[in-house]
Specification:
heterodimer, A: mainly alpha, globular, B: alpha+beta, Jelly Rolls, 2 domains, 7-stranded antiparallel beta sheet, 18 strands, 24% strand
Chain lengths: 269, 522
């Protein structure tokens, strides 16, 4: 009886080890992580190279520009997270997994933990690369101290919030995708649902004529809300504050994981 | 004992046919018997229409109250703006009108509280002579005009524009303009000195009435300044401007001349979509000083405009696209996942034909679903917009067909691209993500102002997202100043050119796919 907590602890450690081994040895994982870093940094650098600030007060947010790559990187993160669970369903591996580890919630928690660790690592490298690209490229395009811009530095509070927030954003996207994929099982449907959730809100918000509806759509959309964390200027005009925005995304991720976990417990595999 | 030669056994079943028709039928059977895919197609239609209706909901607000705007249509059926100050008299049959423009000046009007302090003379302010069917806005015309900074032009029927002498008109360098009518044909001439005339252009206004209105006119288009580019939408200041021109040496030749000159304001008023600020004229001997506001030009959509284009109701096509991409990618990756591809290729060893049959089936099914969705979205969305008092820019039936059928074709080609990438990668998650990222993400980066305009325009030239240009219903006109940016619905490529970019990507992916399918084991 006193051994029960110990047994739980052991099973979680074993589950983590098992999930780490599975994810580490899956053929696509390494390439997808490399793609997260490369695509994020490349799009960020391209956005920084395309931005210009012709005069003082050009009203642009240099931190946001140099983190543009997150728009692309999140799609790769979503693929990685979806494959972490859908891959098991498509090969039938899930039945072996659940036979070996009958505590299904533990399996999902272990998957989420390993995935979060991997995405946080890749995301940190990607964001550091993006900020470095912005720091090197932006001053050459008019973002100079004469126009009221200091070089991007992580020592600056809002910039640090934008950078750290972007890393957390990617991790939350991974959890949202994992939850969605656990719910629908099929990888194509799962990735369609995740990218639809992320990309459709801003498109619909851009075309609705009703101002209130537009603002609400921006507040509840996982991408438009979550990326509020990247803003360093004009915070008062945002539909919601940076951390609150990330909170909205966290709520989406929690809901998806909860739904997925519940269905995993209730359904046959 | 004689026995007949032993005849080998022949099955009396007829040999199976392996024509391309058979292959198409096989693929169609595969598609329609998977319930999830058929439901996916129907879901794509429903979300496209539903989100289109959501985008069209909401009421127009003009000065704090609901407004009821209208816009005239030109002889070609396109939306136009037709408001100016006209000093006119009737002209029966053939004849000609000649005038000297001595000066053109302008700025914003004094009673314009929301406008900028100094707008100056608008580049496309116009002063000149016109022959117009009647005074109804949108009627046929031909005009010779002096512009603010684009020299002399001959313009006709709103969209026609021919350049004449360059340079700014002033007292030191006036411009002489002449229009002659002979039947349906109107010819425009210009001169720097009133003696040596150059022909600028000839136009035929078919069905022009025997009696037309002719005379002097001045117009000055609304001032637009983009004030802010937020994450969503664009803030803009838009206000009326006024231009004033001095004319002399006016002469009119025709069968019945010598009538009196009448000044009148054409178009504008409370129901116009474009702000207009009065106008008037003053005559001192042979010298006419005419002030006017407005523009005679095709309508354009842009920041600060209260109107909506018909493609506004097609925003839901993005949602439909995502669903269709998922179904199209699964149409091939499911075969790899279940091992059915080996049966398929054993039954039809010519692998390229298998892929072609699959592409035709998914393309055709998507086109039909897309056509139903786009037609319903444009019809219902347009009705909702108009019902809420929002102006929908009229377009010609041909343009409407192009926008609706083009959206269906766009979805079909996107589905074929998803199929091809699915067959290359053999993994549905990666294929679906790749197709959605290359088609939808550039649009998100371009339209809601994530990227600078120049970079956004490049993205919409070189990525498959260029295909959305086929939805653009209002063309871009060099003779109308406007911010022609992706966020106001203007794509950098022409509709069919943009669509060709998407088709190019799909063809490339299919070609690579056929090559790989022949080389790789299934």
């Amino acid at each position: 009886m006193s051994q029960a907590p110990y047994a739980n602890w052991v099973s979680m450690r074993e589950a983590l080890h098992a999930e780490w081994t599975k994810l580490r040895t899956a053929p696509g994982t390494l390439w997808l992580l490399v793609a997260v870093v490369a695509l994020t940094a490349a799009l960020s650098a391209a956005a920084a190279a395309a931005a210009t600030c012709p005069s003082a007060g050009c009203g642009q947010d240099p931190a946001k520009i140099s983190l543009t790559g997150i728009y692309l990187g999140q799609a790769v993160v979503a693929v990685l997270a979806v494959l972490a669970i859908s891959g098991e369903y498509s090969t039938g591996m899930i039945r072996t997994t659940l036979a070996a580890m009958p505590r299904r919630t533990t399996v999902l928690a272990a998957k989420a933990a390993i995935l979060t660790g991997l995405v946080l690592t890749a995301g940190t490298i990607a964001v550091l690369g993006s900020v470095l690209a912005g720091r090197l490229i932006l001053p050459g395009h008019g973002f100079t101290s004469a126009h009221g811009y200091l070089p991007l530095s992580l020592g600056d509070g809002p910039v640090l919030r934008a950078a750290a927030g972007s890393v957390l954003y990617l991790a939350l996207i991974a959890l949202l995708s994992l939850g969605a994929a656990t719910t629908v099982r099929d990888s194509a449907a799962a990735i369609g649902i995740v990218l639809g959730l992320l990309y459709l809100f801003p498109i619909i918000a851009a075309v609705v004529t009703d101002q209130h509806l537009q603002r609400h759509l921006q507040q509840i959309g996982p991408m438009s809300a979550g990326l509020a964390v990247q803003a360093t200027t004009g915070l008062s005009s945002l539909p919601l504050s940076p951390w609150a925005g990330l909170g909205v995304l966290a709520a989406w991720a929690a809901a998806a994981l909860l739904g997925g976990g519940l269905l995993l417990r209730l359904r046959d595999a | 004992m004689t026995t007949g030669t032993l005849t080998p056994y022949r099955s009396d079943m007829r040999a199976g046919r392996d024509g391309f028709g058979q292959l198409l039928r096989a693929e169609w059977t595969k598609f329609r018997t998977v319930r999830g895919w058929v439901i996916g197609m129907m879901a794509a239609v429903l979300v496209t229409v539903a989100l289109g209706l959501l985008a069209s909901s909401g009421h127009a607000v003009c000065n704090g109250q609901a407004c009821n705007l209208s816009v005239p249509t030109g002889p070609g059926g396109e939306a136009v703006t037709d408001s100016f100050y006209f000093v006119r008299q009737p002209l029966a049959g053939s004849g000609s009108i000649t005038v000297r423009v001595a000066s053109l000046s302008g700025g914003n009007t004094s009673h314009n509280p929301g406008g900028p302090a100094t707008a100056g003379l608008q580049p496309w302010a116009k002063a000149g002579i016109i022959i117009k069917e009647n005074t109804r806005p949108g009627s046929a015309y031909a005009a010779m005009v002096v512009t603010g900074s684009h020299g002399v032009r001959m313009q006709y029927n709103y969209t026609g524009d021919t350049a004449g002498l360059a340079g700014v008109v002033s007292r030191a360098s006036p411009r002489w303009l002449r229009l002659t009518r002979s039947g349906d044909t109107i010819t425009g001439y210009e001169s720097a000195n009133g003696s040596a005339w150059t022909k600028v252009g000839t136009v035929r206004l078919s069905g022009l009435s025997p009696v037309v209105q002719t005379g002097l006119f001045v117009s000055s288009p609304a001032y637009r300044q983009v004030t802010s580019q937020r994450l969503l939408g664009t803030g803009a200041v838009i206000g009326p401007t006024l231009a004033t021109a001095v004319f002399d040496h006016l002469s009119l030749h025709g069968t019945q001349t010598g009538g009196a000159w009448h000044g009148s304001l054409i178009g504008g008023g409370a129901s116009g979509a474009y702000p207009v600020q009065g106008g008037g004229y003053h005559r001192a001997g042979g010298r006419f000083t005419v002030s006017g506001s407005g523009d005679i030009a095709p309508a354009v959509a842009g920041a600060g405009d209260p109107g909506q284009t018909i493609e506004h109701s097609l925003a839901g096509a993005f949602a439909g696209l995502i669903v269709l991409v998922v179904v199209a990618a699964m149409f091939i990756t499911a075969e790899y996942q279940r091992g059915l591809i080996r049966t398929t290729l054993a039954a039809s060893p010519r692998r390229g034909r298998v892929l072609a049959a699959k592409a035709i089936v998914i393309g055709a099914v998507t086109f039909v679903a897309g056509l139903a969705a786009a037609a319903a979205a444009v019809l219902l969305g347009g009705r909702v917009l108009r019902g809420n008092g929002i102006l929908v820019y009229p377009v010609t039936p041909l343009t409407e067909v192009r926008v609706v059928a083009g959206t269906a074709a766009l979805l079909a080609i996107a589905a074929v691209l998803a199929l091809a990438i699915g067959a290359i990668l053999r993994r549905s998650a990666a294929a679906v993500a790749a197709v959605i990222v290359v088609i939808v993400l550039p649009y998100i980066l371009a339209v809601p102002h994530v990227m600078p305009v120049a970079a956004a325009q490049w993205l919409l030239r070189i990525t498959p997202a260029a295909g959305f240009a086929i939805q653009q219903s209002l063309p871009q006109y060099p003779q109308v100043s406007n911010a022609y940016t992706p966020s106001s619905g203007y794509y950098p490529l022409a509709p069919w050119a943009g669509f060709a970019v998407l088709c190019g990507y799909a063809a490339l992916a299919l070609g690579l796919d056929i090559f790989l399918l022949r080389r790789r084991d299934a």
